[in-house]
């Protein structure tokens, strides 16, 4: 499906299908990654998986999936459609032909612009997903905070500490968005956006450029298109390279987004990095290697 020489709609459709598939397959692993990055008390990945299963059954792995399923499909569609059409726009602008092969400089520019664009859509999506995934830990943190700050010094049992339902539990993505807007304002939906820029601008650059290189290397000859299996392999290899470098900033982003309003721990991106290193030292790198969508 093509509307002009430089703009194509099928790139958006392909991105939408890929986004839906990635959410269904990857959300359980993403839940484990988020708990490891932002929660406390997990010894390792296996311990986290077993703890979630014992306390929340299988449904715990899919907590907060409805919103990503509805939104990440749109997000992926926008990202991949924007990247492909930006490539064609740059080629058309520089060479007068939207089908002209992009240089490495062209690919870098298209990738960086895609990373910036992705933050405007992806920051609220990630925030709501993480808040829904982490609300069990957030409730515990708020209870401990209130119980430990009683003005009369009374020793109150944890279960007796009451928090308004709006603060202690999100009924779903719409209620989560409404709660964030009421308590933190519009800027609350973009908490962690700075860290997301640091993640996505280099992250997408280190994804799309290796992807293009691998596709060229796996192509039988210069005149033919890559085999679907070659495209799949190129995407997997490029994704691995991207997330090895992007996951440290993803940890910072996740921690800032999971930061509860009543128990705010981090003042900003730099404070989050310094605090994480000071409190966990080199061990904070253990959180850098968890799977990501």
Automatic annotation (TrEMBL):
UniProt repeat feature Solcar, residue ranges: 6-89, 102-217, 226-293
Known PROSITE patterns for this protein? SOLCAR (PS50920)
Principal localisation: mitochondrion
Topology relative to the lipid bilayer, per the entry, is: Multi-pass membrane protein
**Gene3D superfamilies given for it?**
Mitochondrial carrier domain
Task: Show the GO cellular component annotation of the record.
Answer: mitochondrial membrane
Q: Superkingdom of this entry's organism? A: Eukaryota
What are the record keywords, sorted?
A: Membrane, Mitochondrion, Repeat, Transmembrane, Transmembrane helix, Transport
- Asked whether the keyword Iron-sulfur is assigned, the reply is no
Q: Which N-terminal residues, if any, form the signal peptide?
A: none
**Pfam (any one):** Mito_carr
Q: Does the keyword Repeat apply?
A: yes
| GO function term, MF aspect, one | transmembrane transporter activity
Q: Where in the cell is it found?
A: Mitochondrion membrane
> Family, per the entry?
Belongs to the mitochondrial carrier (TC 2.A.29) family.
| Name of this chain's protein | Solute carrier family 25 member 48
What is the originating organism of this protein? Maylandia zebra (zebra mbuna)
């Amino acid at each position: 499906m093509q509307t002009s020489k430089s703009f194509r709609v099928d790139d958006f459709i392909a991105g939408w299908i890929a986004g839906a598939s990635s959410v269904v397959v990857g959300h359980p692993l993403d839940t484990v990654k988020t708990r490891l990055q932002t929660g406390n008390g997990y010894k390792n990945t296996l311990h986290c998986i077993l703890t979630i299963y014992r306390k929340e059954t299988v449904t715990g792995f899919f907590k907060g999936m409805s919103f990503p399923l509805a939104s990440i499909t749109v997000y992926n569609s926008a990202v991949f459609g924007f990247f492909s059409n930006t490539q064609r726009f740059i080629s058309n602008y520089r060479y007068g032909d939207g089908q002209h092969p992009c240089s490495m400089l062209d690919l870098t520019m298209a990738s960086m612009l895609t990373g910036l664009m992705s933050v405007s859509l992806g920051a609220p999506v990630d925030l709501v997903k993480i808040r829904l995934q982490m609300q069990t830990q957030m409730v515990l943190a708020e209870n401990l905070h209130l119980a430990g700050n009683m003005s009369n010094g009374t020793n109150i049992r944890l279960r007796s500490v009451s928090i308004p339902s709006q603060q202690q539990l999100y009924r779903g993505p719409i209620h989560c968005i409404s709660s964030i807007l009421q308590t933190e304002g519009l800027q609350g939906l973009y908490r962690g956006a700075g860290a997301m820029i640091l993640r996505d601008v280099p992250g997408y650059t280190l994804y799309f450029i290796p992807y293009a290189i691998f596709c060229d290397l796996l192509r039988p000859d210069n005149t033919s298109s890559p085999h679907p299996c070659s495209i799949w392999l190129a995407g997997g290899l490029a994704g691995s390279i991207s997330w090895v470098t992007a996951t440290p900033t993803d940890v910072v982003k996740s921690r800032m987004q999971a930061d509860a309003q009543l128990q705010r721990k981090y003042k900003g991106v730099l404070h989050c990095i310094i605090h994480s290193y000071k409190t966990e030292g080199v061990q904070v790198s253990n959180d850098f290697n968890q799977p990501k969508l």
